[in-house]
Write a structure and sequence with these properties.
alpha/beta, single chain, 288 residues, 42% helix
Length: 288
């Protein structure tokens, strides 16, 4: 295909503590997968005003990024580079990740409250513009990799798209996929979910991916049950499809994505945009 991936983990940073954790997390992913890391700092109006106020040039930002890249190289076998650009973080992360053909974006967030700059609830807007999967991390470390991956399924038919990326991750990290299926009493919706579940199972069986299946309880918020189930499984990663325009209340961007992305247990969440199927669905397998 035309848009081949380039074995790069892109990590935006505002030089905050949580972004440093994202850098550490991204570096460990890159070392595990033998990828490169590219650090990105977006200079927005706030940054420009601060630099002007303190009479500091862009050289300081370049120096900070270079020091971070040197630190990555000194502590690991990962090659590191950096990019600086001006504009809106919402568009520049998208543009740069497409330009360098990154495989993955690791985004550090401060959670729903206590935000610094734009790395918090605004992360939702960054995620939904990304051309590749985004792993949202808080303060939890990478650990030993993504050995246990939670794979929620609801009546959102696009869930089937993330199956191929789940296979890729499982192959790379020797993972077990834990499918968590929403309970649905409506016969029509239940049948739709069952068809989706069966198709996902076929993919996992085809690529010999170990998996389990469990169904949520009745009359309870699905997102909360996903988090509780993830904790019970001692999960390393939750994998979701993001779709801000869906009408289903379970996938309302305020009730679903935010609940999982900013989960209090701080389990990393991989967010995948359905519109990216044409690029990711095939290109990830060219790297296995």
């Amino acid at each position: 295909m035309e848009n081949k991936l380039n074995q790069i983990v892109l990590v935006p940073t505002d030089f905050s503590e949580v972004c440093q954790n994202a850098i550490d997390h991204g570096t460990e992913i890159a070392e595990f997968l033998n990828y490169k890391v590219c650090l990105l700092h977006v200079i927005n109006k706030e940054t420009k005003n601060q630099l002007k106020k303190e009479n500091i040039g862009i050289e300081l930002i370049e120096s900070k990024l270079k020091d971070l890249c040197d630190s990555i190289s000194n502590k690991s076998k990962v090659k590191a580079e950096f990019e600086i650009c001006e504009g809106s973080i919402f568009t520049e992360i998208h543009r740069i990740s497409s330009e360098i053909k990154a495989n993955l974006v690791v985004l550090g967030t401060h959670g729903k409250t206590g935000l610094q700059h734009l790395f918090g609830s605004f992360a939702l807007k960054v995620v939904t513009k990304s051309p590749v999967p985004v792993v949202v991390v808080q303060k939890r470390s990478f650990g030993e990799g993504y050995k246990k991956i939670i794979f929620p399924i609801s009546d959102f038919t696009e869930d089937r798209q993330k199956a191929m990326i789940a296979v890729y991750m499982a192959k790379k990290f020797d993972s077990t996929i834990h499918i968590f299926k929403i309970h649905q009493t409506d016969p029509g919706i239940s049948s739709k979910i069952e068809i989706s579940k069966n198709q996902i199972e076929e993919v996992f069986k085809k690529y010999n991916i170990p998996y389990t299946i469990e169904t949520s309880k009745k009359h309870q918020h699905f997102a909360k049950q996903v988090i509780d189930y993830s904790v019970a499984q001692n999960a390393d990663l939750i994998m979701i499809m993001t779709e801000p325009d869906m009408y289903s209340p379970d996938f309302n961007i305020g009730l679903w994505d935010e609940k999982l992305m900013f989960n209090e247990t701080q389990i990393p969440v991989m967010c995948i945009n359905p519109v990216q199927l044409g690029r990711i669905y095939y290109d990830y397998f060219s790297l296995m």
